[in-house]
Write a structure and sequence with these properties.
It contains three helices and eleven strands. The protein is an alpha+beta fold. The chain has two domains: about 130 residues, Sandwich (Tumour Suppressor Smad4), CATH 2.60.200.40; about 35 residues, no CATH class.
Length: about 200
């Protein structure tokens, strides 16, 4: 199990090419975007953003605004201990993992990515969690039955846990997903702020 990330090619949407058949008839057809596998392996976290800041001033995506109409996709493979020790560098956006053969932090810049995740270890964790929940329900029912001495039936066992990984969008939980796509929309979205303009004074 693991993670695979694909990036779409550079053809523009709606771009056409000429195609001639044996009868000499020339037709136009739209080019299809090519996909390239840019990563396949394990990871602890995968995140994408069009803005450098994750929240609270943390510059988690330092390459997000270096190119117009692009987003940054970051794959974090470092251990929790390494992440804890490197908090200052990660917070200011200067952390890079240059260790040979490790590549604990991978950064990609593009406008369209497709992600597929799978893990037998995570599925086993969900299975154990389900079994623990069911055993607790059975224990509670047995206590109620013995205490009340009635013919109450046990609670329904919980449904099978979905496969995939927890997915968040802008800090909000979006459920469990095995595959998703992140891309930059073609048409920009304009926002209106009712706050007073901030004055920046250069020393």
């Amino acid at each position: 199990g693991g993670l695979s990330v694909k990036e779409d090619g550079m053809e523009k949407e709606g771009e056409e090419e000429l195609d001639s058949n044996n009868d000499g008839v020339t037709t136009k057809k739209k080019k299809k975007k090519r996909q390239h596998l840019i990563y396949s392996g394990i990871t602890g976290i995968l995140a994408a953003s069009t803005t450098p800041f994750y929240g609270g001033g943390m510059r988690l995506f330092p390459y997000a605004r270096l190119f117009p109409n692009k987003l940054q996709l970051r794959i974090g493979r470092i251990s929790p201990l390494t992440g804890f020790l490197r908090i200052p560098a990660i917070f200011e956006g200067s952390y890079r993992d240059k260790s040979e053969g490790d590549f604990g932090c991978l950064d990609f810049v593009g406008d369209d990515f497709e992600v597929e995740v799978s893990s037998t270890r995570y599925e086993e964790y969900l299975k154990r969690k389900k079994e623990q929940k069911e055993s607790k329900k059975k224990a509670r029912w047995w206590i109620r039955k013995k205490r009340n001495d009635d013919d109450a039936s046990p609670d329904e066992t919980c449904k099978s846990s979905p496969t995939g990984f927890p997915f968040q969008h802008s800090g909000e939980s979006m459920g469990i997903k095995e595959r998703f796509r992140v891309r930059v929309v073609k048409q920009p979205v304009r926002f209106i702020s009712f706050l007073k303009p901030r004055i920046v004074v250069d020393d």
